[in-house]
Amino acid sequence: MSVDTATVKRIASLARIAITDEDAARMAPELGNILGWIEMLEEVDTTGIEPMTAVIPNTLRLRDDVVNADPLTGGGIREQVLANAPVAEHGFFAVPKVIE
Amino acid sequence: MTDLTDLGIAGIRDGVRDGSFKAREIADAFIVKVSRAKALNAFLVETPEHAIAAATAADTARQAGETLKPLAGVPIGMKDLFCTKGVTTTAASHILEGFTPTYESTVSQNLWDAGAGMLGKLNMDQFAMGSSNETSAFGNVISPWKRNDGGNASLAPGGSSGGSSSAVAARLCPGATGTDTGGSIRQPAAFTGISGIKPTYGRCSRWGTIAFASSLDQAGSMARDVKDCAILLEAMAGFDAKDGTSLQLDVPKWEAGLSGNLNGLRVGIPKEYRVDGMPEEIEALWQQGIDWLKDAGATIVEVSLPHTKYALPAYYIIAPAEASSNLARYDGVRYGIRDLPTGAGLQDMYAATRADGFGPEVKRRIMIGTYVLSAGFYDAYYTQAQKVRTLIARDFERAWETCDVLLTPTAPSAAFALGEKSADPIAMYLNDVFTVPSSLAGLPAMSVPGGLDKQGLPLRAADHRQATRRTRRAERRARDRTASRIYRATRGLVVT
Amino acid sequence: MSDYRIQGETGEWEVVVGLEVHAQVTSNAKLFSGAATAFGAEPNTQVSLVDAAMPGMLPVPNRECIRQAVRTGMAIEAQINKWSRFDRKNYFYADLPQGYQISQLYHPIVGEGAIDISLDEKNPDAAGKRIGVERIHVEQDAGKLMHDQHPTQSYVDLNRSGVALMEIVSKPDLASPAETGAYLRKLRSILRYVGSCDGNMEEGSMRADVNVSVRKPGDELGTRTETKNVNSVRFVMAVVEQEARRQVEVLEAGGKIQQETRLYDPDRNETRSMRSKEDAHDYRYFPDPDLLPLVLDDAFLAECRASLPELPDAKRARYEALGITAYQATVLTAEVEAARWFDALLDAGVKPAAAANWTTSELFGALNRTGKDIENSPVSPAQAAELLGLIADGTLSGSLAKQVFEVMLETGDGAAKVVEDRGLKQTSDTGAIEAVIAEVMAANADKVADYRGGKDKLFGFFVGQTMKAMGGRLTLLW
Ligand SMILES: [Mg+2]
Ligand SMILES: [Zn+2]
Question: Is A65 a domain residue?
Fold first, then answer.
């Protein structure tokens, strides 16, 4: 598996990680090696095999439609929600202006 | 009087109950020890006040004649992956620097409810990605063990729960929490000669634990022996309605169930684990384990887990894929650091923040995960890996037809020196070759000490009791301590 | 059914439209957290740690949201999938705290169904068309960005973040602005009958992504564009018209249609390319590992089915069978509140045809005039039944009933009370009336002369005087 620098840059951009040309060039063979190694999976015959969906035989539990039933998963906690924000103003999170 | 920090969880719990010592004395002894063991870099944050408060509560309760809680008077170390209310939590990543949760993870809350106190937050591989604790943004953790070759190489405590393993092995705490995604409890336990249990997926709530790979992450206990691990895990585990994958089952009385009697137990030896080039020493150790189990009454059967060799590549698709998505939330908007180059827009801010905040290994895995999920590759990588995962789980199902548990080595090598493998990601990933299959199948697994490394020379446990100064001096002292009661670090045994 | 065509320079073009409607599920709490969903709260006050994607947070689904999606699926006779699953759609944006939206791509909860639309209210059955629904899936809403509060910053409000949406995806079966509008109105009506969405488009409870392509009749499907988040029926219809016209122009000028995301600008009545979202096409969907497969059991499905109300098409058919005209039946069933009101009127024993006539003309007219919705009609079905009863038994003439109704609208009193209070019973004693008229004419001889001389306007004066002398009891018999 060979990965070129352009691919590394495209993936980094998808993952929103700024990357320099040098780092992309350095990372290309490294990613190529890792991907080459995991491609070993191609040799496994998986015809008729379902992909695993739940590691334990368990299905989804549903909760009742009650507001703030558990304070840990309820609302009305604006101070907590904003407590760690790098920039919060007037009850909002603030980010660099987005032009839509 | 013995050194209180030589006591394990059971010893402390029982001694506090019967009045042999006060919980406060225990807390103080460990607090002092932690404060003097900075050379190991096992703790990111020390929280003596938390440990003291819990100890005081235990002593007060005893004085009042109340029934003591299961972990009353026991101070523990908390892996920094667990969010702790009011105490900085970073997952050892720069990107979360300064993050102080306003909430407590279910696992840590369960421990406080059981009367335990916290000595501090333990260093780890960044976002639990690593097998040597070298990916922490806050420095390597050093194992208290030394090779007996006269050299002074700093050894890896394993990872990602390397702060936990180092701290327990160095007697900085009698037990610690760990998390295990592909071996992150078992491998560091093996590297440092302690015990570690990763329970069945869903046993411990994941709520409030910083996610690495959701379908694999599982909290567990790390302590000096299996009994201590059992006590700790009983307090950590339990159904949690806030976690959709939490097991809705009662927590077994693990401690009460411990016995040395293995009569009738069928122990499977998977033949595919005898990998090419496995060192003779591991072979020998494995055989010794088999003999011990036989002596205890178990029957040994050979079993086959034919897809074993595909476990690691499957894992290195699934775990990074999940991680690439789980770590998308670290974007500099709601918590942690923000990098805002001049004139940068929103997306540039994300890219700058994440480039600066994540360490190289985290970035590498996010890149792998992003790649395997990207358009055109999803089925070839991710779907195929999940199919292989089904086959791996099926292998275990088949094995259970002829055996009750499996006995395998934990890791393919002894503790290596820091820096020895960090240049080669795949060599590092191969550390998890024996631990990953049970992770993929969601099965419980435990690493227990099996003996000392012959060729790697005797390993020594650290003891920083008398170390009043730092670093090298402390390390040197550490080497003088109690080699005799040391377990062989690397060659733990996994019982699945 | 539609012969809608765009006349281009090279000939006629057909329009092919598919709608993806995002409908906010009616529930108290969010899809995966216990925070409230109410509209209009202070910023970030209805946000849980889960909705803000704090580290270590996990989603646990709200049963009611699942139930509403299933009921909606049943209402359009769709396939209900007993096994479904949530997937993550990964992209970075400031309104998306997790960095992914939890949605359903590979295994949606509801599969194929259909909605019957009609373009002619007067003859609904003849002008009907069946529009296929591809699927309905459940997903999280995003937060809201405010761009006008600060010169260099956008503000993020996560109150909507995590609110449950149903995404209802039609097949590309719509062929004109009119069909598209009819489909959206019908869908909205069904959702409101079911109670799974309040259909409030101004508050954003329903938004449509409009997929439009054009082709020469008989050709393969053309490349489509998607115009996002259009929030009124009128705008959706405008998007179809403008976007189709634009595409024809591009194609006839020898250009190509880019498959892209567009935005509708109502002020200019045009669609525009949204370049900002262009690189977001690789969403890296994969099953959400925090959520196990969603498996619905028979008891759950049975409860969902049993809780469904009579739906608009069934109700319209029932009304028609009662002798109500097709037009009136259509009008009466279009909005669930009207149908509910009318059903109560029928339950009170009023004859269907009379009830329909009165409701569609008198009541709807009055509500229209006073700008009131039927939910807060000042006249209740019981009061209306009483009024119609007084007409039926001859106590009130049609015109006297109109006066009584006016008073009822104003005071909220019952019909009998109004009649009693104001002595508005119909007088049929023509002799008494004639005597009064003679008196009035005698007392106003000059005006009689003027009237006869051509001053027609005085007629009203005589009526007024006569009524006054009768104590207001005279009804307008002429
Ligand atoms: Mg869409
Ligand atoms: Zn959607």
Answer: no
